[in-house]
Amino acid sequence: MSRRRMIYEGKAKILYEGPEPGTLIQYFKDDATAFNAEKKAVLDGKGVLNNRISEFIMTRLGAVGIPNHFIKRINMREQLIRKVEIIPLEVIVRNVAAGTMSKRLGIAEGETLPRAIVEFCYKKDELGDPLVSEEHIAAFGWASPQELDDIISLALRINDFMSGLFAAVGIRLVDFKLEFGRHFEGDMVRTILADEISPDSCRLWDLVTNEKLDKDRFRRDLGGVTEAYAEVARRLGIIKESAQGGEVVDFSSAGK
Ligand code: C5P
């Protein structure tokens, strides 16, 4: 498919060697997986939408001083990113109870939490990414105390910014997952935001109707998955509505 060297293939993305040292190309697939890849599907156009939505959010986060790996979008499915050493944690920020938190703690889905809660999962597919504490992270050295401080403060700043960004377009940011990496700049190392931010990694509910506009549509067999992602893109102003009322998103040059 490509002349470039593949570095890594994940469930929803592929990383290729970039054109310059220290860069990678992140390719967004249409593949969707849930429950640690027990459930799988191909959702036409999902990769194109996630590429655009992630570009939009990363660019805006960069503009407010959140360092991240995004450099530029190359085409419908690919973006140029900074190469980082991924810190093996999934950093989850929650504003409203849902998903595994509701299940684990018996809190009704939709209950607003008393404050934003940051959780950590150890990135290990074989173990199903178990929830871990800061003690585990420190004891096993997955991140240094300084890195963990940076991760928490960046995660909370990202939450504040994104909550406002989505609220402005009628969407509640229920929760989301972030990944961070070590970016080596000469003999300095900096913790920066990596991976993607998209409806695959966020829970996004319509502010008025509570309609789900995220991957839970796939996890829970609600249908209309890409339509919901397109609705998020449309509300953010990333894709335009056509005269007929449908979304204008050109999948033809999307190159699978
Ligand atoms: O499943 P759970 O409730 O723990 O997910 C919390 C948030 O993190 C959700 O927005 C979910 O989409 C995201 N998440 C993710 N990748 C994972 C686990 C969770 O993007 N592996």
UniProtKB/TrEMBL annotation:
CDD domains: SAICAR_synt_PurC. This is Phosphoribosylaminoimidazole-succinocarboxamide synthase. Belongs to the SAICAR synthetase family. It catalyses: 5-amino-1-(5-phospho-D-ribosyl)imidazole-4-carboxylate + L-aspartate + ATP = (2S)-2-[5-amino-1-(5-phospho-beta-D-ribosyl)imidazole-4-carboxamido]succinate + ADP + phosphate + 2 H(+). It comes from Henriciella mobilis. GO terms for cellular component: cytosol. SUPFAM superfamilies: SAICAR synthase-like. Signal peptide: none annotated.
